Amino acid sequence: MTECCEKKTSRPAAENLRFKRVLLKMSGEVLMGEREYGIDPAYIERIARDIQEAVEMGVQVCIVVGAGNIFRGVSGAANGMERVTADYIGMLGTVMNALALQSALEKIGVESRVQSAIPMQAVCEPYIRRRALRHMEKGRVVVFAGGSGNPFFTTDTPAALRATEMGCDALMKGTKVDGVYDADPVKDPEAKRYESLTYLDVLTQDLRVMDATAISLARDNNIPVVVFSIREEGNFGKVLRGEGTSTIVTN
Question: What pTM, to 2 d.p., does this model score?
Fold first, then answer.
């Protein structure tokens, strides 16, 4: 009984959190782990535990995940496929990733729902804003799939759109690196990491934090974009507490 009480009091109170409702945006490549293609089950379970920590801290979490580990619409179009068809295949890939993430979350006891912009009621719910809000209020994680339901957009844009619709305090961009740099830190060891940027900085310097449409939408609705490393275990919770390394993009 004492141990249980100690565990509860060791968690930060919700009022001490940096953000209380967030949208986590991850690329599909993150789910590959160390693989070259597809989904690494062990890695996706680790990410699920990071999300579980955030939920237990009292944060309401929704998620948008890409499909680059399965299929990229732009790449498909570049290889001769019709762009619209390629984009729809990519949207279906996001549904696959969302279901895999839901499975990992449910396995560790985190209630979750997948909502798709492309209706496929046999496997998930259709996207309904008020229903998604209700799920989050009940402590469930909502994974948004199917992009925006429209071709010619990356998953960055529906991430900014859903963050706006859900009234999120921030859009958390989980990447392979711990923030935004002025050059690729993998290729340039002297690349400088920014602590903070404005939306205009990102657009004028073409820093590729997210696509321009997503950044503009975040700017218009005053939603901070926080870029951090999702590959570092436990970093999601640290950033939510204002402790981890990240770059914040605001007005």
Answer: 0.89
